[in-house]
Each structure stands twice: as C-alpha cells, then as structure tokens.
Please model this.
Amino acid sequence: MLGDYEVIAFTQTAQPEKAKAFYSEILGLKLEEDGPFALVLWAGRTMLRIQKVHELTPLPFTVLGWNVPDIKATVAKLSSKGIKFERYQGMPQDDTGIWLAPSGASICWFKDPDGNTLSLTQFPRSA
Model:
C-alpha cells in the first residue's frame, strides 16, 4: 500500500537559522518553506521537513543519509565547504573518513549544526 508513495523524511532543529543555511547553502537542498513549525526542503524527489523544536538531544545514530554516485568527490566538495567528517574508534576509515563496509559500500558520517548524524553512502556497482 504505502510502498507506492514517496517517503517524507523528518529531522529536528533547535537552531532553525543555522539549519536553514546548512541544509540549503552547504548541502545544496532546495528550500521551499521556512514556516513557523518546520523548514521544508527538497533532496531530489524527497521532501525533508526539519521540525523546529525548543530543545534537542541528538540521537546517537544516523538520522539521514544520501546515496551518492562518487563518495570521494562528494566528500571533497563538502570538506571544501567546511564539513568535518566523523572518525569512529575501531572502524578502519581512510584519511577522509570513509569506511569500506563488508558489503562493499563506502560510508562516511558528518554532523549538522544540531549534532544530528548524517551519512553518505556509495553502494558497489552491480556487475
């Protein structure tokens, strides 16, 4: 039933002006609305609603991620805009923070202004 419809993604911010600049100017999402309750942005055909909250305790895991065709190029571009990629103890990451998962996917993580963990993934190409 719902598998026929597009998903709307949600996250939260206690710093809406910083989140608006981060998601639209740094990450390049298209800002549609800055309303009283949420920022509404578009990532491709996916709507992202960033709910405006008074207090926020970031979750200790990834809340949003992007499937990218070239993770090294994307990391380089975001790094040039000031994004710092996370390092996790016990995970063999390359010098840019990219981890090669057992599945063959390349993955890295970074934070938004509220401390929410975001990720980039490049899945292996099918033969």
